[in-house]
Amino acid sequence: MHIPRTDTVNIEIDSFESTLLEYESYNKGEFSPEDWLYVPPRYSEYRYILGTKGENPLICIGINPSTAVPGNLDNTLKSVERIAKHNGYDSFIMFNVYAERATKPSDMDKECNLHLHRENMKAFRYVLERSKSPSLWAAWGAIIEERDYLAGCVADMIDLGREYSVKWYTSGKISKAGHPHHPLYLKKDSLLDEFDVSTYVNTVLIKE
To answer: Taking the CA of residue 208 as centre, how many other CA atoms within 13 Å lie in the half-sphere pointing to its CB?
Structure first.
């Protein structure tokens, strides 16, 4: 379990650029930078990126990180890894709508930390730039309803994704409310389906 010590506005948030440099100079031996993309390259109250390295990654978008680290994935990340492989991808990247670690989304910041969100978006751009044809798996589930600010964070990601001509996918049954399925209880042979994010954001996320 990871329960945040305090709201992220009360802790120092390192910029994505500084944590990326930290990762690029990593030599502690707790994981292999040749195999893993992990920023920051240490356990902290937030996580920008966690994934394996390859030429054709599946970029999975969840709500927020929990306890997973390289070599010790939680059950959600194990499912993501299996489904990515089954659908023909040679690697996976786990990204999140909001970067604060919390095993229970109900423990996340009550209000959006705009600084953390901006740095997370820089990390998102970095992830998109690493892929020739980014495939994004919308996998945040109904958990997105946990905080009002999460809808705006997703909308920002969708806008940025348009700059890179990304393709959006889902896997599993869409919820009654219209949200994409969470990866945890999906079968390992689950397939990806195309996902119309424009319709989703206009009819489900952003409500008048």
So the answer is: 1
User: Which of 17-26 are b and which e, b meaning 16 or more Cβ less than 10 Å from the residue's Cβ?
Assistant: eebbeebeeb
Sheet bearing 91-96, strands edge to edge: 36-39, 49-52, 91-96, 57-62, 135-138, 167-170, 193-194
The pLDDT assigned to 143 comes to 94
Cα dihedral 183, 188, 191, 196, rounded to 10, equals 0
What is the rounded CA–CA span in Å between residue 87 and residue 186? 13
Name residue 131's amino acid: S
Residues 164, 35: Cα–Cα separation, whole Å: 25
Q: Name residue 196's amino acid.
A: D
Q: Which of 8, 205, 1 is nearest to 119 (CA)?
A: 8
Give me the amino acid identity at 127.
Answer: V
Instruction: Tell whether the model's pLDDT for residue 206 goes beyond 80.
Output: no
Is the distance from CB of 155 to CB of 125 less than 8 angstroms? no
Task: Name which of 110, 112, 184 is nearest 142 in CA terms.
Answer: 184
Assign 80 a pLDDT band (cuts: 50, 70, 90): very high
Scanning the structure block, which residue is given the tokens 């893993």? 36
User: Mind listing the pLDDT tens digit for each residue in 117-146?
Assistant: 999 999 999 999 999 899 999 999 999 999
Average pLDDT over residues 20-36: 96
